Amino acid sequence: MRFHVVLRYIGMVLLFNAAFMLISALISYTNGIDSGYTPLMLSTLLTATLGLFPMIFVKSTRQINSKESYAIMIGAWIMSCVVGTFPFLMWGGEFTFTNAWFESVSGFTTTGSTILSNIEALPKGLLFWRSSTHWLGGAGVVIFSLVILPSFGKARSTITSVELSSLARDNYRYRTRKIVQIICMVYIGLTISSTLLFKVAGMDWFDAINHSFSVSATGGFSTKNASLAYYNNVWIDLVAIFFMLIGGIHLGVIYATFTGKKNNMFRSEIARYYLISTLIACTIISLSLVISGNYDSFGEAARYGFFQGISMVSTTGFATADANLWPPIALLCIILLGIQCGCAGSTSGGLKTDRVILAGKLIKQNFIKQQHPTAVMRTKIDGTTQDSESVNYAILYIVMFVMLVILGSIVNTACGMDIGTSFTAALTWTGNVGPAFGSMGGFDSFAALPEFAKLFGTLLMLLGRLEIFGLIQLFLMKWWI
Amino acid sequence: MGLRRRITIGFFSLVALLLFAVAISIAELGRLREDAREIVEAGDRGSDLAAMMMSGLQKQNSAILRMVATEHIQPDSEYNEGTSEFDNAYSEAMEVMIHGTDLDAVTNAEKQYRSIVEAYLSPAPTPIINDTTGSLEAFRPDAKRFLEEYLPAYYALDNAVKRYMASPQSSIAQRTAMVEDNAYRTITPSILTLLVAVLVVLMFHFFIDFFYIKPILRINKSLDHYLATRVPFNPNVEGNNEISKLKESIEKLIELQKSKNA
Predict the structure, then answer these.
(1) A19, A80 contact by CB (below 8 A)
(2) Which pLDDT does position A170 carry in this prediction?
(3) Which of A94, A393, B179, B207 has the most beta carbons within 10 angstroms of its beta carbon?
């Protein structure tokens, strides 16, 4: 492996981070040079130095092999998380080293869990940087820097194929270069349109931009302590529901839908399953809220029930109500949605709808096989036959996901958390969802957790975001030779 | 970009980062010293101002008691002096206070005290009605009733000022936390700059080793091998920098030597 090439491309990603830090510093400047200005400017300088240094020695190269592209991707995520802590650490306040690392990893992995007990105490520039970590992480730091930085040829396709999961890649009907363009177009389109609609619905420009970063990346960081409940505005809730739901769908399918292509979200088996399962679960949640007397009318129950359900399934993690007070059936539906999550090729985390469908089909096939032992069966999704490698990988992923959630629950319980909170916290971190239940609900922060639980939580977030095996590769020494 | 320029830029980056770390440390330490000095000065000044308030209050008190004893309701010079001394000290204390709630107790007690005294000193005293009979008792201020209201208000204000005087001691934990917080913020940028400098040093070492030292060693080894055994000189040197040019020059030299020998 050519480490110098890897370092050069990681440096490019860091420069992209530095650009967003600079924008955040400018926001602090325009806000009367608030307390976030100096930390953000210093962070910009340090990140830019780290990013530029490899470029002095390493020339641009167009040939990158798959190991190098893996190393670039993983290195870029980890280094982005590291430099992401700089502004938080320099600002101080509630940010100790562990807290800053937790917040940065939670941002870049679009998890949206926070350790801040008073978000509104942060200066505007720092709030913008916090939301930017979501936005940068959302579509993948690597893809973005490859699109923006022009000196790429073949390198672009190799890195992109690693960044997208294999299931997501199957859904695209386009060449790699086109995929990158689509990701950018859809992602920026979602961000701009959600910003405008949030503004029209009643937010100020700053909050609208920050929440649009969060919603288009299906992250969950808000600029308010009470998340979106602060506004108590039906229109804002509706805008958020729409964009969270859309954010959980494959970006290529969204593009196909809006450009009138055949493989749109209404014909895609995965997108249809995602939409229908979400609709059913949210309806059950809403009905249970009316029956249990949490809300007087179905309309009111649907407003909060659909919001919370879609917030979980898309792994955004915004909150407008305290779901801890809801009946058990509603909680169960929310947790199940948080396990299934959105479609592969979207910015959401979790198991992904694709794998849930695949697992369901394999179970069905197994029953048929027992009746017809000699039958030759193919596993198809959206009419495409899945090769055995993809199927095995998906099943292995589900097993690993469950094992990580169990391991996380054990660690959290050992750190003194109750079982319910431990399990949902482990699930929410591995699935990059955001809020847990119990003592770490939608309006609560993770500040009270022991340091070790926070550090372990960040490991689960990174594993979840890098589809588990991506990060594990880093620790296999043979792989580096 | 040539070898010399690259290495120079690399070194300058390191030097700049280290200088930057030192500059931040000095600037932040200066700021920390300033913060600590301000906290100490604010504490000292607060005590002085509390003493001034006490002095002003005592002057007002003795003047008021004298007025009550002599049945005069016109403020004398001592009262005016005491009031002015108290007001000036209070205004300054408002400006230098560290926490917004430091003077709340003094403010409330002073408001109560002032309203009682002003009611007594007002040029047209309100009629005093007998509670039991309901008949008009007097137009002049009732000294006894005034003192019943005045003395608790005076002692309340006196206690509030004394508490304010002792507040630097009682808020020592808060002030220490403030200094600690500032110290943390002072040291963090320097640590992060040094961390980045360490990463740059590691990268610098890696690049120098990979691009320059290893190829030179390979050329040297291959040349030694060639001179000893006449095995073809063919070191593995990639790229298009000064080192690969050196390799090409040696190759040319060997070819020239071979043709001369032939």
Answers:
(1) no
(2) 52
(3) B207
Interface check for B185 against chain A (CB to CB < 8 A): the answer is yes
Q: Given an 8 Å threshold on Cβ–Cβ distance, is A49 in contact with B204?
A: no
Judge whether A49 is closer than 8 Å to chain B, CB to CB.
yes
Q: Is B204's Cβ below 8 Å from some Cβ in A?
A: yes
Average pLDDT, chain A: 85
**Residue A284 phi/psi, 5° resolution?**
-60, -45
CA B34 – CA B23 distance, rounded (Å) = 16
Q: Which residues of B touch A57 (CB under 8 A)?
A: 6, 10, 207, 211
Confidence of residue A125 (pLDDT cuts 50, 70, 90): very high
**Cβ distance of B6 and A7 shorter than 8 Å:** no
Longest CA–CA span in chain A (Å) reads 75
Buried b (16+ CB within 10 A) or exposed e, B178-193: beeebeebbebbbebb
Q: Are A323 and A295 in contact (CB under 8 A)?
A: no
- Reference A200, options A235, A244, A237, A242; nearest CA is A235
| Chain A to chain B Cβ contacts (< 8 Å) | 56
Residue from B86, B34, B99 nearest B55 by CA: B86
**Yes or no: domain B3-125+137-185 corresponds to CATH 1.20.120:** yes
Residue at B105: amino acid letter: A
Mean pLDDT in residue range B225-242: 77
Enumerate the domain spans of chain B: 3-125+137-185
Q: Do A92 and B200 touch (CB under 8 A)?
A: no
What is the signed CA dihedral for B105, B110, B113, B115, rounded to 10 degrees?
-120
Torsion of CA A225, A226, A232, A233, to 10 degrees: 60
Task: Let me know: does A173 contact A83? Beta carbons within 8 Å.
Answer: no
Find the CB nearest B196 among A46, A57, A91.
Answer: A46
Q: What is the pTM of this model?
A: 0.79
Apex A289 CA angle, A283 and A294, nearest 5: 155
Asked if B188's CB is within 8 angstroms of A90's CB, the reply is: yes
Residue B6 has which token pair? 């690259």
